Amino acid sequence: MRRVLERVAPLAVLLALILAPGCGARFELPTETDQAIIPGDGSYQMVATWSGMTGVRDLLLTQGSGTQLFLLFNTGGTGLAPRGDVRSYARKLTTGVPSPIPGISFATLFNPIALHTGSSGAAGSGRIFVLDAGDSCLARTDPAAPGVCDPGYQAQGRRITNLAATWRVREYGLLGGDTISTFTDTTMADVAGIAADDQGRVYVAGSAIIYVPDPNDDRIRTRRLLYRIYRYLRGPRYPGVIPVPRDPFMPGANWHRDTTFVVEEGSGLGTLVDPRGLYWSSAGGAALYAADFGKNWVQKLDPSQSSAGFYFLDGGRSGEAFNGPTDVVVDLQGFLYLCDTGNRRVVRYAADQEYVQTVNVEPDAQGQDLMNPIAVAADDSLVYVADGDLAKVIRYQRRK
Fold it and tell me: 154-187: per-residue pLDDT in tens?
């Protein structure tokens, strides 16, 4: 009997220690929790993978109260039929193929490629601005063959014959619906990125048609395509003038191009070469951010004056130079997130330009690393990344 008691006593002591409260908290057994303990090191954990997102092209996460998540899809095409759409999704879906929120749709889209949130201007209501790239060849189609792209006809420098096929900005409410307003600018040949600010102004990046004077004879001008970011304002260029003067380059639009602001093509800070993703933010001072694909930079540009910048990042502080960046966003704390597409990563920088971390340190739910990250959206703790090659959206959450 004594030997039996000697064996039982240590077990009883051990059981008592397990069941006894410690430091005012109950000690959970391993089988009582279904999650691994995540270290609070501030790194990012992959928490969801949405597969089957064929044609995903851009992401938008509105910030502040009432956050909404929008995904832009574009599956391509050659005719005048719609090639893409914008859908809204719940922010915290689990792994799988999510379904869009019913009742939210965006009418009249043709060839959407990018979107941004902004303001309606004086009213201050939230808006969604979608950049529709149109089809430059179909816009200049031979009238004898409407809807047919004829590169030979287009190469002759023909004027636009089909305005419905030109690029344009379309403005919507936060729940989509009918187009509130729209505009195009025929002085831009093609477009790549869009941003909008809290004053209702819209920024568009792309290639503009510029007539460059001959250095020896200013009467001779050469037509060139140069990279530009233009800014557009609501209403006529000269309010109060009757009859209202019409801008021949922006037919039918109640908008005009702000000729006091332009970001030009160039090699230095404040100029660009092939700007792609744009983002406007007031965090840390109002600024326009641009993923400069051609120079492998991301730039913080001054929206108060033409071709002026605050700084550029080239990836050097992360240990690897950027390679073809395509998108950039800024959260409400001023942290910057960049799609470094050529290096297959998404990186995070602090407002003081210091490199913080790479977001995609973990593979997705299928064990795959990023292949072609083309768009990013973020708030204070979540980052969404669209991968065009994998047809996935991966959600990461920062550990606290």
Answer: 666 667 888 889 999 999 999 999 999 999 999 9
Across all residues in the chain, what is the average pLDDT? Answer: 87
> What are the distances in angstroms from CA 208 to CA 256, 262, 296?
16, 11, 21
Residue 398 and residue 385: Cα distance in Å, rounded?
A: 14
Could you give the 3-state DSSP secondary structure of residue 330? strand
DSSP string of 110-124, one letter each residue: SSEEEEEEEE-STT-
Architecture of the domain defined by 49-398 = 6 Propeller (2.120)
Give the chain's residues under pLDDT 70.
Answer: 1-40, 93-94, 122-124, 152-158, 242-245
pTM: 0.86
Q: Strand, coil or helix: what is 27? A: coil
Spatial distance between the Cα atoms of 330 and 130, rounded to a whole number of angstroms = 19
Going from the C-alpha of 281 to that of each of 34, 132, 300, the distances in angstroms are: 39, 22, 10
Cα of first residue to Cα of last residue in the chain, in angstroms, is 54
The string of DSSP letters for 46-65 reads EEEEE---TTEEEEEE--SS
Domain boundaries, the chain: 49-398
